[in-house]
Amino acid sequence: MACMKLGSKTDAFQRQGQAWFCTTGLPSDIVVEVEGMSFHLHKFPLLSRSGALERLIAETSEDDEKCVIQLPEIPGKAKTFELVAKFCYGVKLELTASNVVCLRCAAEHLEMTEEHGEGNLIKHTETFLNQVVLKNWKDSIRALQTCDDSNILPHAEELNIPKLCIESLAMKASTDPNLVGWPMMEHGGPMQSPGGSVLWNGISTGARPKHSSADWWYEDASTLGLPLYKHLIAVMESRGTRQEIISGSLTYYAKKYIPGLTRRQGESSSRLTSPLLAPPSEEDQKALIEEIDRLLPLQKGLVSTKFLFGLLQTSMILKATSSSISSLEKRIGMQLDQATLEDLLIPNFSNSMETLYNVDCIQRILEHYLAMDQTTGRASPCSIDDGQIIGSPSLTPMSMVAKLIDGYLAEVAPDVNLKLPKFQALAASIPDYARPLDDGLYRSIDIYLKSHPWLAESEREQVCRLMDCQKLSLEACTHAAQNERLPLRIIVQVLFFEQLQLRTSIAGCFLVSDNLDGSRQLRSGFVEGGWNNAVRENQVLKVGMDSMRMRVSELEKECSDMKQEIQKLGREKSSSSIWGNMSKKFGFKIKSQMCSAQQDSVRNQRSASRNGKIEKVKGRRGKHKTNLDQYYS
User: Fold this and answer.
1) pTM for this predicted structure
2) Annotation: CATH topology of 3-131
3) FRET pair for 157, CA 20 to 30 Å: which of 53, 195, 423, 570?
4) Which candidate, 15, 4, 154, places its Cα nearest to that of 87?
């Protein structure tokens, strides 16, 4: 740290308890009392340097045997006045970045100008500030740190010292050190030549700073108090510093002074590693969160979503203002597609403890994301082909959010206190086009039904309407067809669409078979080995087609038995009305002659008909029931 030496005399001051004495051999004729400390001095050295002390001495009654002066408002209190007194006596002392601000303010307060002595304290401190401190990063930081004292800050602001230091720091922090080439002022070590000698002002002999990334100044800036730090950030923004650099510094500052953020993310706070530094109070942390929220640029992706979720959760614990919580929810909503399932699992900190997790908060965040998506015009329907999304390239983030919400629903579904309307509202908020498959939604619905066995049949059907049976995979259809928790109507729909999927697959197999037959004629001139391979492939294909035909036959019989059972139970007026309504609902018109030619072809190639009658639907479901947990593994 740079310093300036003043005075030439040896130290003639001694302290005894709460008093200082000048041992010059002459009796003291004045006592200056500062902050409970008394200084037994002499009038002439003081009044020859200070206009304020000259007036106070003159105002004191001459009849008093000893002049006593009170200085309750001197900047820096007793410690600073000790240095002022030594300067007045010409005793050796050093001006440093740690004391120059206090001495400059005290000199101004005591009117230590050139009119009261050449080379006075104001001139020395002013010169040291401008020519040394403001040109050095570390010294500017130290000088600015001393301004955090409430006894110093008002006097320093009158002299524009914080402003000058902050402008100097902002200029250095917003400039690429690789371009300027100054040493990093004790940050990461100075620049060195290959031989180890220190270089100054970037004299190029192959030296490079050890650390020259854009975040090199974060740690030093975080040592400032919040008011001065806010001022520094504002000046850097006005100088055009990139938003991502500003956001990085704010993130570093918040993690350093809000212990909850580092604990949540499994990091260690450098500030809390020292036992001498106590963590801030809850009120200070709450105020800091609100300030960080106001200072963060409103732009997507500048800070991590995990950090924003940490701020939100901590603000809920500390009971921050509703406006601050709402602002954080909107920030998260802007980049919800970058979140993870762990981020969404925010515990419910309300007094009611209605649910284990704060579902309402996630609902609001999702609404912000959907509103932003609609505003930017990114939400547009598209088609699904073999499980792949075809259409707008911006649909990918929406699909990621849909998958995230389906996973969140599966996590909160076991909560017995989660009401059906909340579960439905969150599940229904995702647009239909955002889910290529409804397997994730089906899984969360099944977990919810398992955890809420008291739901009425109508409520079960209501929650099952959230999913589209046409968008279930064959594996999910097989699981749903044997799921006793689903209403019978939903199982019928699942079987119906499973049959349609199999019919479509068989039609595709026929098309492939026809293509193989046509290509077989073209291969007549090929070698015998190629012909044998084609024959084997055709045989494998026919075996697969036979198994599919058997499955279709079983499903046809199964649907027929189910129709008879529904008719017996009297759930509808007639069998024709049941299947008519179902056909209208899904946009398919089913006739008794549907695919009759294809059915005849399937039945002609079927092996010997099975003996005995096929059991009813419930019996078959018991016979072919699979382990439900196997589907989720």
Assistant:
1) 0.72
2) Potassium Channel Kv1.1; Chain A (3.30.710)
3) 53
4) 4
